[in-house]
Structures are given as C-alpha cells and as structure tokens.
Design a protein that fits this description.
Distance between the termini: 43 Å
Number of strands: 4
Mean pLDDT: 88
Shape: elongated
Strand order of the largest sheet: 1-2
Low-confidence stretches: none
CATH architecture of the largest domain: Orthogonal Bundle
CATH superfamily of the largest domain: Winged helix-like DNA-binding domain superfamily/Winged helix DNA-binding domain
Largest sheet: 2 strands, antiparallel
Helix content: 55-70%
Strand content: 5-15%
Structural class: alpha+beta
CATH class of the largest domain: Mainly Alpha
Radius of gyration: 18 Å
Number of helices: 5
Length: 115
C-alpha cells in the first residue's frame, strides 16, 4: 500500500464530513456528485463513518452526521486555552446588559461562535 492511499482516503472522508456539515443529510449519489468520488467509494466511506459512530443512515438512504460530533466539538473547545476565563466574563456581561452574549473567534474568512 502506498503512502498516498491512506491520505487519499482521509481526504475523501474529510470532504464527505465537511459536505454533510454544510448541507445536511444527502444521498450517496448527491455526495458522489459533490465530492467527485465514485458512488461505490461513498458507500464504503459512509459505512465506515457509521461503524465509527460518526454518521447514521436515515430514511431514503440519506447519510447524515450524528450527535457524536457535538461531543468531539466540546472536547476540541475544551482543549483550547485562548478563552479559558471567557465564561465568567460572558455571564457578567449578560447579567449587566440583560442581553444575549456570544464569544466568537475569527477563523480564516469567517467567525465561529464558541460560547
């Protein structure tokens, strides 16, 4: 097995996960069209994600990400120390202004709501 093959599988899987995160549940045919991957490979990648507990199949053969991603996101968030004391500041700000407050961080050309 070449070194490129595992990287290709990871790239295709990452593309599939990103697509499902952006567009929601899709059929294998829709996924194949969007990530330029043969439908047979999409079925295998979808099966692997389901076996890993990261995706689920819903009616009409649609594949979607499952709630396990929320736990993974929480773990990623907890591992970043940039905003460690932010919760207390957010609570104080919300209390004093009686407004909803958010902590967002810049990432590339977008803003991601962290808390």
């Amino acid at each position: 097995m070449s070194v490129d093959r595992p990287m290709g599988v990871l790239k295709r899987t990452a593309d599939l996960v990103e697509l499902l995160a952006l567009r929601g549940a899709l059929t294998p045919a829709e996924i194949a069209d969007n990530v330029d991957t043969p439908r047979s490979s999409v079925y295998r990648l979808g099966d692997a994600l389901r076996e890993a507990g990261l995706a689920e199949q819903i009616p009409d053969s649609h594949i979607r990400l499952n709630l396990r991603w929320l736990r993974l996101a929480d773990a990623a968030r907890a591992g970043m120390s940039e905003w460690q004391g932010a919760r207390e500041v957010l609570d104080d700000l919300a209390g004093s202004t009686r407004q909803t407050v958010f902590l967002s961080v810049p990432r590339a050309d977008e803003s991601i709501c962290i808390d």
